[in-house]
Structures are given as structure tokens and as C-alpha cells.
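User: For my dataset I need records formatted as: sequence, then C-alpha cells, nothing else. Please produce one.
Assistant:
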Amino acid sequence: MLKTPLDALHRRLGARMVEFAGYEMPLQYTGIMAEHQACREGAALFDVSHMGQAHIADARAFEALVPGDIAGLRPGRQRYTLLLNEAGGIIDDLMVANFGAHLQLVLNAGRKHVDLAHIRAHGVAITPHFERALVALQGPKAAAMLPEGAALRFMDAAALRVAGIACVVTRSGYTGEDGFEIGCAAEDAQALTGLLLARGATPAGLGARDSLRLEAGLCLYGNDIDEGRNPVEANLTWAIAKRRRADWGFLGAAPVRAALEAGPAEVLVGIKVTGRAPARAGAEIRNAQGEHVGAVTSGCFAPSLSAPVALGYVRADCAAAGTALDLIVRDKPIPGVVAPLPFVPHRYAR
């Protein structure tokens, strides 16, 4: 398995390591619940160096592959977008930041090589920097622990020096909390991380990252979205920019437009689950009449709510908030109800 530049630090801190997207990654250090709460109440530090950083010079050429307004993205700003195939399926979801001379992309770990091949196959030059480190500092105290980035707003991006270390910083993240993603050279990763831990950040692993993003109603590629799903089904139509809905000039636009106009047969929804047992990915979803209407794509116990929550695709007629559903866990129906997303309100620095 591959290792991130922070592998030795994880082991010194006593992390429980697991395989994820071909990398050895920390699942937890002291415990998922404690790390989750550290992010909600203070600041947690996640190693996300397994994700792929890359540069593209031609914004207009890249815009032809995604439904976001990339040509209109101002320098110093970042945007979430979707890399689509010809059928409108989601190859990856990614972050794009404009640094003036180039766009910086952050790609999902398990898709970064697929993304490179797809982008190049459509004539767009892209330069990978997969060797670089990336950490996410997340939580209400994140700005106090990174005063160098305190002037940034949500979705701002800047090249900054943190205690003399050259970094690329965006004010964003995957937890629903305020925070930053900080990229640096691999050889500086240990020093940067040590500095942030010394300032009071709590190291956190994949377990807390998953429960936090699920409470925030955020998709995980490979679970909630994939090439078999389009943005309309995935409730990601907000990622199709207004200007792009006027020109429909991106790869996969025709099937996405058709799905938007006709309405999806299935749609991704949030579900609050009764009891304490979470419904995991793959669990069947039935309506009040006992009919099969969908399946869970992500599920966990939500520490902030003291209750289980799930994401899943359900038949469109069962997608309205308040709809009663049964989730089949160990062959037993567990009551649930369709709930608005996010489960826990976002607290970004608007």
C-alpha cells in the first residue's frame, strides 16, 4: 500500500491504520467519538494527502468537461464541481481554485488517475502534483490556530507562508465546520503538522471524517455518487452554474438536461433512523406498503444527534421530507423518515 508523507507521524501518535483508496491511512487515534467532538467543539487535523493535487492552465478548455462556471471563477476563489462522462455520469467530484496563472484541482484519492486519463483524453493539459501533502484543519477554533489564514472567507484560496513554510491554503473542508485545507511540499509536511498540533489541533482519522461529512449531508464518491449517477439524481443540480444552464456546453450536458427536465426516477435523500443501530451502505429501503423503493448508500451513528442517520437513493415519489420509510437491518425493518439535509447545520465562515 502507498503511504502519505505523514505516515511516520501517524504511527508515533498511535493511530490505528487501515487501507483506503490504496493508501495506509489513520482510522482513529484516541477514538472516533472523541475526534468527532474535537472537530465540532475545537479543531481537528486530518491527513488528506492521499487526495490528488493537480494544475491546469487553460480554464476554458477545462470548463468544457464540467458543469461549473470555471471561466468566471475569480483569482483567489475556489469552487466545487463535477467531472462528467458522455452519459452525464459523475466521474469525480472535485474542488477547483483559481491561482491566476493556473487552476488547482483537488481530486478524490481513488479517482485521481482516472481523472487524469479522462481530462487528457479530451485534449486538456493537466500536471499532477500527487507527491504534495495536504492536511485539513477543521472546527470552530481552526481560524485561531491558523491566524495566517484568518482573513480568508469561505471558498477563498491563497498562497501563504505558515511559520515560514510555503503553503497553498483554501478556507473550505468536508466536515460542515469552518476550516482550511493546507497544501505543502512533502518534505515540509511533518513540520507543518507538528506546528498545528502544537497550536492545539486534535489529530483525527477517517472514522471521524466520515461521521462529520455524513452529518453535514456531503457525498462520498464511490458510496453516494459514481459514474452510474448523474447530478440530478444525486441532488447536486446546484453545482450546474446558471450560465452553463444557458449554453449547456459541457460534456454530458444533453442527458443531464433531459434528466433535469423529466425529473429523476430516483433521488438521493437524507434519512433519520429510529433507535441506535445504524443502517450501513447496501441496506434495503422499503416504503410504508413494504415495497422496495431504494437502498442506503452511507450510514452511521451521528454523535452530534445521538442517533443514526443515512443517505440513500429512493424512488422519487418517496423523496419528500417527512416520508416514512423502513430500512432493513439484519433482516428487520427499522423505521426512518426522510429528513432535510444537512442533518447538522453548516458553520462555514461566510
